[in-house]
Write a structure and sequence with these properties.
heterodimer, A: 351 residues, alpha/beta, seven-stranded parallel sheet, six-stranded mixed sheet, B: 358 residues, mainly alpha, two-stranded antiparallel sheet, 2 strands, 75% helix
């Protein structure tokens, strides 16, 4: 019996292929998106990467008008990181007197939901589109449509896309890994064994942070990376893995965890072996709970990102583009080390 | 094909003609009128939802936005069609989301890493979905596993397989031809929407105009009766799960085309929403009932809710609450419009069953 539907779908597929000639990539047909002189694409210098502070110094404070509306398509707000990103976006938009709207999704697997919401946002009319795509290419169609209509597109954190004309605002994930390796090296002048807890292997953040950390460790000949495993961003899993690593290599001197959530699990594993303070633990992100652990001495440091600054910088970049100013393809919002020396300066939230 | 609790009847002893007549005689007058009434309710509800959103936000009823709603409903609709068949037989398929992810990642890997042509990769994906689904059916019929348990197990197995294929990594740079095949427009109409229309028409013909369709409905109405009437219940069930798996695979391929990439868990959000589409459309989880058009409308309602609530700037957490309420209200209205006949039917059947087995 199942031959009928199979054959039917094959016919349908064949028909779809036959109709390919009549297809177009956009509903309006194949109207080109090239040939715009003053559009945002020509204003974005893809090859350059400039830190946000230098950029603000050279371009001046952005100005907004009341008819400008900025749309930010974020990820799930059940992850507080994206909440801070949104806070930065909304606070800056409010400060500069422009209209704004945030669109969030259910969870980290809501890839097509995010695409649908981005389309809804674009249909509503946005002067500029800001987005934090879950999948690196997931929103490309929306970005292309927006750019074709001369709407600037700003990507906030993580999934640095490949669509020409988009501006990426965020840190360099490889530098984050390298910063962690250099920090550990400075704390361990005599060297020793180190281990890494990785995030989800499908995430570009995990890949790049891992690559950066490995490159950083390789620079210091007295340090060896003896273990590196994925805990898929999961705290409990990270605890189990770190515990097993300490059993296999009792002389591990330092752990690097690719995010703070997993670092909390590693911290528990270290405490269970009575090694708190004897084994260094460096996390990533700078979430409030990690800072509490740093203050309590159960974590050594975290490579903190600046989501609130990123959200605000995204607004600035969009307004600069709308004002016809040239903006680099990569607005660098660098990550920095928070440890016991400076943790007191960041009592609440994230910078 | 053995039903241990039943007395051994040879299906061949029955005269097939009288069986069919009996089925027609009992099925038509009992189900048709209530079906139409209830179907009308869903269409009215859909129109009301669209009008309310249209009044609250001027952008909602624009052609561009309606087209986006149709596209966003397409994957739910495709997977929901398969679920509808499964639900009609009284089963459930929890593996559809994983199959969609698995098929997407395998087809994308074939194209990107093995250089398979997009069309062959598409066929391979559809075939893989079919095999995965048929395996569900075999577990349910030959190992006598309850559908919930069997597909709960394979949901995890197929998801694990999806991770194994690429070690959890997404596959990017999907060939443009493939994206073009499933995510483009013909005269302004999205291919995905045309695909849904074609598949829905085929599914409707299969369900309402073939012996197979009759057997599916008979199996869901009462498995024992169907078996005694000569329906090869096991074969029907395997075919239905194979169909569900295949459509889930098609859904997975549409997802790949929409996001220009295969993500290892891209299909997982569609499990519950596809079941919800079928249920809103009037599919009865107790079996025997389900409508192709209803499932399409169910998918459209869910798509309209997501889209409309976004336009009204409702945060996604509240959106989930509203979506859940709509599912509950739709099914409650369904039951209410029939005066809770399901309960009566079930209790009556139970007493009948006791008589048979006793």
């Amino acid at each position: 019996m199942n031959k009928i539907p199979k054959a039917a779908t094959q016919i349908a597929a064949a028909a779809a292929v036959a109709l390919l000639a009549a297809c177009s990539a956009t509903p309006e047909g194949s109207s080109g998106q090239s040939g715009q002189a003053a559009g945002p694409v020509s204003l974005v210098d893809a090859a350059t990467k400039t830190p946000i502070k230098e950029l603000t110094a050279s371009l001046g404070a952005p100005a907004g008008s009341a008819d400008t509306k900025l749309c930010y398509i974020t990820r799930t707000l059940s992850n507080e990181f994206w909440g801070f990103e949104r806070d930065g976006f909304e606070a800056e938009a409010k400060k500069l007197g422009v209209k704004y709207q945030t669109f969030d999704v259910t969870d980290e697997s809501s890839i097509t939901e995010q695409l649908d919401k981005a389309k809804s946002a674009a249909n509503q009319g946005c002067s500029a589109l800001l987005a934090s795509p879950i999948s690196a290419t997931g929103l490309d169609t929306v970005f292309n449509d927006a750019l074709a209509k001369n709407t600037p597109v700003i990507i906030l954190n993580d999934a640095k896309g490949t669509v020409p004309g988009t501006v990426y605002v965020g840190p360099d994930a490889k530098t984050i890994g390298q910063t962690a390796a250099d920090y550990i090296a400075a704390k361990l002048p005599e060297g020793g064994k180190v281990a890494m807890i990785e995030g989800d292997p499908g995430s570009s953040n995990a890949l790049n942070r891992g690559e950066g950390f490995k490159a950083g460790v390789a620079k210091h000949s007295n340090m060896q990376l003896v273990a590196s495993q994925t805990a898929k961003w999961d705290q409990t899993k990270a605890q189990e893995i770190a515990s097993a690593m300490l059993t296999a290599n009792p002389d591990i001197k330092a752990f690097y965890s690719q995010n703070d959530g997993m670092a909390l699990g590693v911290s528990a594993a270290i405490a269970a072996k009575n090694l708190t303070g004897k084994v260094l633990l460096v996390g990533t992100d700078g979430i409030p709970q990690a800072k509490k652990e740093i203050q309590a001495g159960t974590m050594t440091a975290t490579v903190s990102e600046q989501p609130t600054t990123e959200g605000a910088s995204g607004v600035d970049a969009a307004l600069w583009l709308l004002a016809g100013k040239k903006v680099p393809g990569w607005v660098d919002v660098p990550a920095f080390i928070i440890d016991s020396a400076n943790v007191g300066q960041y009592p609440t939230g994230m910078p | 094909m053995s039903q241990p609790t039943l007395p051994k009847h040879d299906a061949g002893e029955h005269d097939p003609k009288t069986v069919n007549q009996q089925q027609d005689a009992t099925a038509k007058p009992r189900t048709r009128p209530t079906l139409n009434l209830q179907a009308l309710g869903i269409y009215i509800a859909a129109v009301v939802i669209f009008l309310i959103f249209g009044m609250l936000n001027g952008n909602f009823l624009t052609a561009g936005n309606l087209r986006d709603i149709a596209i966003s409903a397409s994957v739910n609709a495709i997977i929901g069609l398969g679920i509808t068949f499964v639900v009609i037989t009284g089963g459930i398929d929890l593996a559809v989301g994983s199959i969609a992810s698995f098929v997407g990642i395998v087809s994308a890997t074939l194209m990107v890493n093995a250089g398979t042509s997009p069309f062959l990769a598409l066929l391979a994906g559809i075939a893989l979905g079919l095999v995965c689904g048929a395996l569900n059916g075999v577990l349910i019929t030959k190992l006598k596993l309850p559908p919930f348990i069997a597909t709960l197990g394979t949901m995890s197995i197929y998801q694990g397989c999806a991770y194994v294929v690429t070690n959890g990594r997404p596959v990017y740079n999907v060939p443009k031809d493939f994206v073009f095949m499933l995510n483009s427009y013909i005269g302004g109409v999205p291919v995905a929407v045309i695909l849904v229309a074609v598949l829905a028409a085929l599914c409707w013909l299969l369900l309402r105009r073939t012996v197979f369709g009759q057997n599916v409905i008979a199996t869901g109405g009462s498995e024992e009766t169907a078996w005694l009437s000569g329906v090869r219940v096991d074969r029907v069930k395997i075919a239905v799960y194979a169909l569900s798996g295949m459509l889930a695979g098609v859904g997975g391929l549409v997802i790949v085309a929409r996001i220009n990439a295969a993500q290892t868990d891209a299909g997982s959000p569609y499990l519950l929403t596809a079941i919800a589409s079928a249920v809103i459309g009037g599919a009865n989880l107790m079996g025997g009932e389900g409508r192709i058009a209803g499932t399409l409308v169910g998918a459209l309602i869910l798509g309209a809710l997501t889209n409309g609530l976004v336009l009204l700037n409702v945060p996604s957490f509240y959106e989930q609450i509203v979506t859940g309420l709509v599912v509950v209200i739709a099914v409650a209205l369904d039951q209410g419009s029939k005066g809770w006949p399901m309960m009566k039917k079930r209790s009556r059947e139970k007493s009948e069953k006791k008589e048979v087995t006793a």
